[in-house]
From TrEMBL:
Lineage of the organism: Eukaryota, Fungi, Dikarya, Ascomycota, Pezizomycotina
Protein name: Translation initiation factor eIF2B subunit delta
Cellular location(s): Cytoplasm, Cytosol
Example GO molecular function: translation initiation factor activity
Gene3D superfamilies: Translation initiation factor eif-2b, domain 2
Claim: Cytoplasm is one of the keywords in the record: yes
Compositionally biased residues, Low complexity: 7-51, 97-109
Sequence ranges of Basic and acidic residues compositional bias: 54-70
Length: 469
């Protein structure tokens, strides 16, 4: 009966293993010659030592793979889900991610570049979207620009009403400073109504840092805050911080809601009416009033003067990029006011010569009396001032900035996101120095309400403390 055996059959010559071992010994001796004659040969590694050596080499390869992967991620970050998948796969497939092998064959060789996928899959490194600000020169890199911030990336505590207002601001559906202020306060009102103080906290300590600040940060990300928004938010924060730590939540919320309602009534609605009334008093029968673009205070002034029975004409020089002057002309013609319309600054000189006064709407007024207004306003003011005409700025006191000064149009401004290309870009506002402004009409009662631009700080101090002479 035949049997199988792995060993050599009896009587067969010895296998040829010995010569092979001898040749290996010679090769080893040639590779590692002894330091001196008679030196002992290197002892063979045990199984445990071989296992430890293999483990150390594997750990070294993993470390090198990790370093290479981190360098690639730093150069072009991956989405969170895909980055997690790549990290998981790299644990068992260190050589497939383009890392340099740790063996002697990989020394001195650069990692192979990624090849385009032939299976239709997305590459492991996504190409970043083009930056809309990439064409802006570095000297203008500090000037902010509105952008549509993704609602999915907003802070989890941002209220839905604030999300909606932020998107409207980013798309310029709400662009006037007072309109933005009112929309913000109404959204904050809903935030306060839905707020509940967590256990172990107080409204005065928890509301501002954990609830109000995320709303403000999101709105600022959508579009830089206007001066009126900044002033109102400071007042709201100051009121919250004055609450005692033991103040009842319901009482504190009612006080905040009432303060917002009073602020909208006094500083926006009534202020608008008073400014229009004070400005309308300056218009005389037969005057030609020059204005630029469309501003709600100027429009209300003309309608108020018409209601008082005054007959006058309005000359409109439009902003060619905005076109708001066309809407103003239609509104005034419906009210029975004769209008002269010029689509751009090309008709500036003849319009200035026939005008009696110039009414300009302001976005903000700085502490040094400089006027921030839509781009092109400074040209109107300088031309009218040089021609000896009165230049009257219309502005509510909530738009005054009592801390900052401005002497140029680059320090506080915005880039028009709709007119930003690799060749050129447009600023939304310009700066008119106080010497070109005859007076400022506010809601503050000072005779006709017409005060020098340099006197805004005195107006604010007297408004806060009526006892000041």
């Amino acid at each position: 009966m035949a049997t199988e055996s792995n060993g050599a059959p009896s009587g067969a010559p010895a296998p040829a293993a010995a010569p092979v071992q001898a040749s290996q010994g010679k090769a080893s001796a040639a590779a590692n010659p002894p330091a001196a004659e008679g030196a002992a040969t290197t002892p063979k590694l045990t199984a445990a030592q071989l296992k430890a050596k293999a483990k150390a080499e594997k750990a070294a390869r993993r470390a090198q793979v990790k370093e290479t992967r981190e360098a690639v991620v730093a150069a072009a970050p991956l989405p969170s889900t895909q980055a997690g998948a790549d990290t998981k796969g790299a644990k068992g497939k260190g050589k497939q991610d383009g890392s340099q092998p740790s063996g002697p064959q990989g020394q001195g060789k650069a990692p192979r570049p990624h090849r385009p996928s032939m299976s239709g899959r997305r590459p492991s490194i996504l190409v970043a979207e083009k930056d809309v600000r990439s064409g802006i020169p570095e000297c203008f890199s500090h000037v902010p620009m509105a952008k549509r911030a993704s609602t999915s990336q907003a802070h989890k505590d941002v209220h839905s009403a604030v999300l909606a207002v932020g998107q409207q601001m980013a798309t310029f559906a709400i662009k006037d400073s007072i309109a933005r202020l009112e929309a913000t306060l109404l959204a904050f009102r809903k935030v306060i109504e839905s707020y509940e103080t967590p256990k172990g906290n107080s409204l005065s300590r928890h509301f501002v840092p954990h609830v109000l600040n995320p709303q403000i940060e999101y709105l600022t990300e959508c579009r830089p805050m206007c001066f009126a928004m900044g002033n109102a938010i400071r007042l709201l924060k100051g009121m919250v911080n004055k609450f005692d730590i033991d103040t009842d939540e319901t009482e504190a919320k009612e006080d905040l809601l009432e303060a917002i309602d009073v602020f909208i009534r006094d500083r926006i609605t009534l202020a608008e009416l008073i400014v229009a009334r004070n400005a309308a008093a300056i218009i005389n029968r037969g005057d030609v009033i020059l204005t630029y673009g469309r501003h709600r205070l100027v429009e209300k002034t003309f309608l108020e003067a018409k209601q008082r029975g005054k007959e006058f004409d309005v000359s409109i020089i439009d902003d060619p990029y905005d076109g708001g002057g066309q809407e103003l002309a239609k509104s005034l013609r419906r009210a029975g006011i004769r209008v002269f319309y010029s689509p751009n600054l090309g008709g500036l000189r003849p319009n200035v010569e026939r005008a009696a006064n110039v009414f300009l709407g302001a976005e903000a007024i700085f502490a040094n009396g400089s006027l921030q207004a839509p781009a092109g306003t400074a040209d109107i003011a300088m031309a009218a001032s040089n021609a000896g005409k009165q230049v009257i700025a219309l502005c509510e006191t909530i738009n005054f900035d009592r801390e900052r000064v401005s002497v140029d149009a680059l320090t506080y401004n915005e880039i028009d996101p709709e007119r930003n290309t690799a060749e050129s870009f447009r600023l939304l506002f310009d700066n008119t120095r106080d010497r070109f402004i005859t007076g400022v009409i506010t809601e503050f009662e000072t005779g006709t309400g017409n005060s020098p631009a340099q006197a805004i700080l005195a107006l604010l101090r007297k408004q806060e403390d009526p006892t000041i002479a």
